[in-house]
Fold these 4 entries.
Entry 1:
Amino acid sequence: MPSVYDRNRAAWNRLAEGSTFACVATDAECREPLKALDSRGWLPPSVAGWDVLCLAAGGGWQSILYACAGANVTVVDISPAMLRLDEREARRRNLSIRIVEASMDDLSMLPEAGFDLVHQPVSTCYVPDVERVYREVARVLRDGGLYISQHKQPVSLQVVGRDRNDRYVIGVEYFHSAPLPPTGDMLYREPGTLEYLHRWEQLVGGLCRAGFHLEDLVEPPRHDLRAAPGTIGHRARFVPPYVRLKARRVARHSGGCSAPQLWTPESP
Ligand SMILES: C[S@@+](CC[C@H](N)C(=O)[O-])C[C@H]1O[C@@H](n2cnc3c(N)ncnc32)[C@H](O)[C@@H]1O
C-alpha cells in the first residue's frame, strides 16, 4: 500500500497541471515581489541577500518572487512536477534557485541554522505530525529567524457537507488523528491527497514548544457576502479556512520560549 507521502506526491504531480496552487508568478508580481508575498507587512522593506527556504512551496510562485527580491532561495517540495515549475520559471527569468525534492518533515539534507526566513504555504495538512515539521524548521533557521506559515484551520477540515438549510455540517471528530475520510465537501480539499487535521494545540502550542515566539496570527479572508451556497466564498462566511502565523526563532542559548529577539532589516 502506498504511504501517505507517495499518495500526496502522486496527487500533487497531477495537480501541478491546472491547480490554482500551481500558478506561477506573473510579470507584474515579479516587478513588486514583496508586495505580492507580504500583504500583511511582516517582512522588512528588503530581503536582498537573505537565505530563504520556501518550504513545501513548489509551483513557481514563492521561490520566483523571493529570487526576484534578491534572496538566495532554496525551494523544497515532495512533488517533482511542482518543482519543475520552479525550475522552468527560474530558467525563463534567468534566476538562480536551489531545488530540493524532499518531505517537509525531514530536512536532514539542509544545514543547521542555514536560513534567515522559512516561508511555508498551506501544506502541513499533508503530513501526520506538524510538530515534526516545526522541529525541522527550528533546526534550519538561524536564531532570530522568521517563520511564516499558513495552515488549514481544524474546523474547516471537520466539515463534511451542507444540510438542506445551507448550514455546514461538522462530521469529523476534533481528535481525529488518521488521514481524513473522503467527504462530499471538497471546497477546501485537494482531490487525491491524504490530509490530516492538526489541532490548535499542535498548530500554535507546538510552535512554541519547538522554540518559536508567535508574533502575529491572522485569518486570511475568503468570505464573500454575495456568494451562493456551495461556493468557497459562502463556506468561508461560516467556517474560516486558513490561519497564517508569524513566528520568530528563539535564540538557541536562551533555552526555549523567553524574551523575543530584536530584529531589524540590517541584522538578518
Ligand atoms: C497548497 S500547495 C502550496 C504551493 C503553492 N506554491 C502555493 O502558492 O500555495 C502544497 C504543496 O505542498 C507539497 N507537499 C505535499 N506534501 C508534502 C510533503 N510531505 N513535503 C513537502 N511538500 C509537500 C505539494 O507538492 C504542494 O506543492
Entry 2:
Amino acid sequence: MRLCDLNAVLRMDSLFLDPKNEDCLYKDKRKNTIMIGYNCKEPGPYCFCDSMGLENYHDLFFYDMGEFYYIDVGSERGMKLVSRLKDYDYKPPQIKCEKTLNKKLFLKHFKNPIWEKLSKNCLSCGRCNLLCPTCYCFTVEDKPDMTLTKGIRTREWDSCQFKDFTKVAGGFVFRDKRTERLKHRIYHKLLYYRQRFNKDMCVGCGKCIEHCPTKIDFVEAINKIK
Ligand code: SF4
Ligand code: SF4
C-alpha cells in the first residue's frame, strides 16, 4: 500500500477499533492483516498528501533503491519478518507534491457561494465515495427469505452523495440538495472527523478528483476561497 492508503487504514482503525464502539467484524479482519507499504517516488498530478500531515503506519515499508530495497520497520510484527536482514543506514526522502491544500481558508466558509458553484456539475454518482480509501459510511439491509422466518442481515457500503442516504421514515431527506451533499462530504473529511479523532479524514490521495466524471476539484475550490 502507498502512504496515503496506509493512513486511510489508520482512519478506519481509529473509528472501528475505538474501544467505545469496537466493531468485532472489522477487528477480526484487521488483526490478521500485515501492513506493507511502498514509497511513491513521483506523486501523481492529483496527489496532495504532503498537505495532510500523514504519518508512518506500517509493519514494513519498502523504498525502491534501484538495485535493492531499503525496508523501514514499523512494528514488532514487521521486525519478525526481516530480523535476518542486515541493518542499513538511510534517511528516507519526504514526499513532495505539486498540488497543495490550504485548509485554513476553508473552515469559516460554510456559507460561501463557492459550494454552490462547485456542485453545479455534480452528478450525485457517488464515485468519489466509492474510490475514497477513507469513506466508510454504510447501510444495513435485512433480506428475509420466502418463509419470513429467517434471512440475512448485510452491511453495504453507501454513498453520502445519493439522495436517499439521509432519507428517514416519513420520507424526509435531510440533505436534499446536491450542494448540501457535496459540502457534507468535504466537511466530514476536513472538519467533523477531526473534531472526534484529531486528524483529517482525507489523506490527500486525489482519487476523488482524478476519477470524478466531471472533474470536480474541492482542493482547487478551497484554495480559491478569499
Ligand atoms: S464523483 Fe464527482 S460527479 Fe460523482 S458524486 Fe462525486 S463529486 Fe459528484
Ligand atoms: S483525496 Fe478524495 S479520495 Fe482521497 S482521501 Fe481525500 S477525499 Fe478521499
Entry 3:
Amino acid sequence: MRANGRQRRTECGIPWRPLALVGLGTAAGLAVYRRRRASPRWRLLEQQGASDGDGRGAQRRAVVLGAGFGGLTCAIELAHRFADDPRTEVLLVDRHNYHLFTPLLYHAATGLVEPSHITYPVRAIARRHGFLFRESAVQALDLERRQVQTDDGPIAYDALVVALGSQTNFFGLSSVAQHALRLKEVPDAVAIRNRIIDAFERAELEPDPERRRALLTFLVVGAGATGVELVGAIHGYIFSALLDEYPGVRPQEIRIVLAEAAPEILRGLDRELAAHALREFSARGVEVRTSTPVRRVTPEGAELGDGEWLPCATVIWTAGIEPVGLVRGLPGEHARDGRVRVERDLSLPGHPEVYVIGDAAHCQLAPDAPALPPNAPVAMEEGRHAARNIWRRWQGQATLPFHYQSKGELISLGRHQAIADVYGVKLQGLPAWLVWRAYYLSRLVGFKNRLAVALDWSFAYFWRRDTARLEPQPLATAGSVPHEAACTAHE
Ligand SMILES: Cc1cc2nc3c(=O)[nH]c(=O)nc-3n(C[C@H](O)[C@H](O)[C@H](O)COP(=O)(O)OP(=O)(O)OC[C@H]3O[C@@H](n4cnc5c(N)ncnc54)[C@H](O)[C@@H]3O)c2cc1C
C-alpha cells in the first residue's frame, strides 16, 4: 500500500504491508496447527455428528465414568486403540468438566498454587485424543439393561468402566461430617485456606487468650500421606507467610496437632522414613498424637479418644476414604472398606463387559496378597489395563490379568523436607524434596498448568505466598457444600 508515493510505515519505521503479511501468515499457521492438533478421529466424529455423545454413526460404545486419574487414562487409551475404528465410540462422563490433580490440592489449600492451576479442561484432552465427553452426574447404573442413568438422561453402553473414585469416610461420626473440613475437591481446598486466614483475622481482634488459643489451634486428623503433607504445608503457610502479615499474632500462640488413631504414622511406609517425618515435625513444634482417635467435633473444638477436649476452630479430617454409594451398590462381593472386589482382569464378577478401577476397586494380585492401595499410579495403570482388555474382548481375544509393580512413595513434609522411597532407594530431606517437586511438576496435565504451577512455586519461594481470602465461586459452592447432597441424591 502506498500513500503519496511512499510505502506507509509504523512509528518504528517498519513497512506496514510486510508486517501485515507476517501477521496474517502467523495467524493462518496457528489456525492450521490448532486444527492439526485435534486427532483425526475427532474430526471423523465431528463429521459424523456424533460429538454430542448420542451414538449416531457409532455401532458400539465404551462408556467411562469419572475423569479422574483412572478414567481419564482409560478413555485416552481406548481412543488410541480404536483410533482407526469409526464404528466404536468412546465416551467419558464426569460431573465436572475438568480433571483435578489431587496431589497438589493441599498446595491450593495453603496459598502455594492457584486452585485453577491444578485443574485441566477434559474437553481439551478429549479433542486432542479423539474421544467424547459429557458433563453429567451419574445417578444410577442399570447393569441388566446396560444403561447409565445421569441427570441428563440415560446413556447406553456396550462396555462400561466405573472409575468414580472415593469420598471422605467419616466412619459414621455425624458431628465430624458436619463440622470438620475435608480435602477432596477444589472447593474443599478453598474452604481450608479461607478457614486458616479467617482464624488469623479473628485472632488479631480477639482479646480473650483462651479464645485466641482456640482460633490458633489447627487439628489435622489422620496421619496417612495426605494428613502428613497437609500438616507440613499448614506449618509452612503459617510460619513463612501468615505470621508476617498478622503482627498481632505471636508464634508461641500457634498450635498444630496431627492426631492418628493407629499407634504409628504413615502406616505401610519404611519405618526409618516415617521416623524422619516424626523428628522433623517435632523439631518444628508440631504435636503428633498417635493412638488418638477423634470422636466428636463441634465448632468449638474436638473430643479426643481419651476424653480430652481440644479447643480449636479448625479441624481437617483426612482419616479415611470410602467408595461412593454407586460403587457400594454394585453387585458382587465388597471388601470391608466398601470397595468392590474385581476379577484379576479388573472386570466385575459376572459382568465381563463392566470394569471397575481406581479407588473404587478392591484388587488383589494374589489370593493372600493385600489389596492394591488407592492411589493415582494404581488407578492409571488399571485404567490402561481395562482399556486393553476391552479392546481384546472386542477383537475376540481373551482378557489378560492385571499386574502392578509399585515404584515407591514420595511424601512432602514442607519447608524443603520430604521423604522418598523410589525403586527401593530411600531419600530424605532436601534431595527428596527436589525429587518430589520435579516428579509432581512433570505429572501435571498440560504444559500451561506445569508452567503456572512452576511460577506459583517460584513466586511463593522468592517473594510470598498468597494470603488473600478467596471468595467461593458459584461453581465451587456447587461442588463443596452440595457435594454431600449430590452424593446422597445421585447415589
Ligand atoms: C488431597 C489428596 C491428595 C492425594 N495425593 C496423592 C498423591 O500424592 N499421590 C497419589 O498417588 N495419590 C494421591 N491421592 C489419591 C488419588 O487422588 C486417588 O487415589 C486417585 O485420584 C484415584 O483415581 P480414580 O480415578 O479412582 O478417582 P478420582 O481421581 O477421584 O476420579 C473420580 C472421578 O469421578 C467423578 N465422579 C464421582 N462421582 C461422580 C458421579 N456421581 N457422576 C459423575 N462423575 C462422578 C469425580 O468428579 C472424579 O473426577 C490423593 C488424594 C487426595 C484427596
Entry 4:
Amino acid sequence: MFSTSKTFHIIGGGISGLSAAKFIRQKHKNARIIIYEAAAHLGGRCFSFYDHKLQRNIDNATHAVLGANSEVKKLLTNEKFYKKIFFRKDKQIHSRFWQEVPFILLSIFNTQPKQIAKSLLMSLACKLFPFLPAQRKIYFSQGDLTEKLIAPLSGFANEVKTGWKLQSFTSVEDKINKLKFNQGEIELSKDDIVISALDAHQYQQIFNGPQFKFNQITDIYFRTSVPLTLPNNIPFLGSPDNLADWIFINQDIVAVTISDSQDIKLSDEELARFVWQEVRSVNGLTPAFLPPYRVLKHKRATIRQDEKNQILRPKSAQTQYQNLFLCGDWTMKDYPCCLEGAIQSGKRVSHYV
Ligand SMILES: Cc1cc2nc3c(=O)[nH]c(=O)nc-3n(C[C@H](O)[C@H](O)[C@H](O)COP(=O)(O)OP(=O)(O)OC[C@H]3O[C@@H](n4cnc5c(N)ncnc54)[C@H](O)[C@@H]3O)c2cc1C
C-alpha cells in the first residue's frame, strides 16, 4: 500500500507546500518527497528575518490567527491567544466584537466587505457557527513566524532545494514529464507526482492558470527608544477609523497593518510619518520624532476575494494533467486566503495522491 518508488515533487516551500509534505509523509511513510523553493528561505508569504535597520527580528507581515483556525492552532499549542479584541472608534476604546464585523471581515479577507463573495461569507459563517468566544480568540506573531510556524513543518521532505525556481515544464499527452528549473531539469518517472504549492500569480505564469486580481497589504514596523504601551496595556488594537488598521505591540517594536492598501499613494516616509502620528494619538501623545521604521508593501498579499475571483478558484486539487495536483491558500474555494486555508490545502492534496 505504501509507495516506495514514486517521488513527490512539491513546487513552492510556503506553508501549503510544507504542509503538503507533512500530510503526504503521514500517508506514504517511505515516499521520496522533494521541495523546490525559488527563494533562499522557506515560508513564502509567512516568515521572519533579522532587519538590519531596526536591529530586530521582524515578520514579513504580522500574522494574526483566530482560535477557529484549528490546523494553525496545532502548531501554536504553547502560544498565548488573547481572549478579547479591542477597537478604537470615535476616539473611544471598546471590545464589542459584533459592532465591528465589517472591519473584521476586511481584515480576514483583505477585501472591502461589500465586495467579498457571498459564498465565502456563508462558508465562513458556517465554519464559525455557533460563534463561541474560543473561536474569536486571537494570536499574533511577534517576529517569530519562521520559528513558530515554518520550522515545525520543515522536516518532512527528504530534500529541500532552495534557490530552485521552476521556469517551465513539458508534457506528453496529459502527463508532465519534465520540470525545468533555473538550476537544471528534472525528468519525471511515470509514477512521479507534481504538486504545485505556488502562489496564484506564479501558477498562472507557469501553468497557464486563472488570472486573478490581487490586493495589497502594507506592514510598517517602528522601533521605539522605550517600549510603547497602548491604553490599559492592551497588546493590540483595531482602528476602523484610521489608516493604521491594526497596531500590535511587541516590546520596543510597534507593528502596524493596513489591509487592501493598494490605493494609498504615499511614499514610504510619508506613510510612516502619517501612521506614526496615528499611533501616538491613540495614547493622546503629541507626534514625536519619527523612530526608525521599515515599510513592507506586499502587492500580491492575497487574491481579491470577490465574486469574480471566486469563480476562478479551482473546485478541487486536480488539474488537466494526471500527475499535477494543487495546493495553496488560493486553491481552497471555501476558505479565506490565510494560513489555515494554506494548511488545509496541503491536507486536501494528500487525499488525492
Ligand atoms: C502581508 C500579509 C499579511 C498576511 N496576514 C495574514 C494573517 O494575519 N493571518 C493569516 O492567516 N494569513 C495572513 N496572510 C496570508 C498568509 O501569509 C498566506 O495565506 C499563506 O502564507 C500562503 O501560503 P502558501 O504556501 O499558499 O503560499 P506562499 O506562501 O505564497 O508560497 C508559495 C511559495 O512558492 C514559491 N515560489 C514562487 N514561484 C516559484 C517558482 N517558480 N518555483 C519554485 N518556488 C516558487 C514562493 O517563493 C513561496 O515560497 C498574510 C499574507 C501577507 C502577504
